[in-house]
Design brief:
Layout (H helix, E strand, L loop, with lengths): L5 E6 L8 E5 L2 E4 L4 H16 L10 E9 L16 H14 L9 E4 L3 E4 L12 E8 L3
Parallel strand pairs: 4-5, 4-6
Antiparallel strand pairs: 1-7, 2-3, 4-7
Helix pairs in contact: 1-2
Length: about 140
């Protein structure tokens, strides 16, 4: 496998892009209060990893998202099988990367490579010592 075009390490509690709820006058807000802070963490880490001369990726892309989530003190199960949903974590992270202009649009993603959610400080080589995520993005050539 070729080297990723970009590797981003984000620190902060991952927030899922969930349902929206109406607040009146046709306006909607995100149900999860974790989404906005998470998007800010992702955008800041992405911009730092990309550097000031970054040109947004604009072509077919493959991405890997590995979310390190906090483990409760009494949790013994080996896999993070509870809230938040992996797909909703990916959605919020993709939107943050689009806002940060890492890629032209998340529609450029044609494949995912082993997305997963794990516990922080697990023995997994991608586990962070604190909550956050490791994101890898590759360009795809035919």
């Amino acid at each position: 496998m070729t080297a990723p075009a970009l590797v981003i390490t984000v620190h902060g509690v991952p927030g899922p892009q969930g349902s929206k709820r109406p607040i009146g006058n046709g306006r909607m807000i995100e149900s999860s209060k974790k989404v906005a802070p998470w998007r800010k963490h992702v955008a800041a880490a992405a911009l730092a990893a990309a550097g000031p001369d970054w040109t947004p990726l604009d072509g077919p892309l493959r991405a890997e998202f590995v979310f390190s989530l906090p483990r409760g003190k009494t949790v013994r199960r080996p896999f993070h099988t509870t809230y938040p949903d992996l797909s909703k974590l990916i959605r919020s992270t993709e939107d943050a990367l689009t806002t940060a202009r890492i890629w032209a649009d998340d529609a450029r993603l044609v494949a995912y490579h082993q997305p997963r959610k794990i516990y922080a400080a697990d023995p997994d080589p991608d586990a962070l010592t604190e909550p956050g995520a490791v994101i890898r993005i590759w360009t795809v050539t035919p």
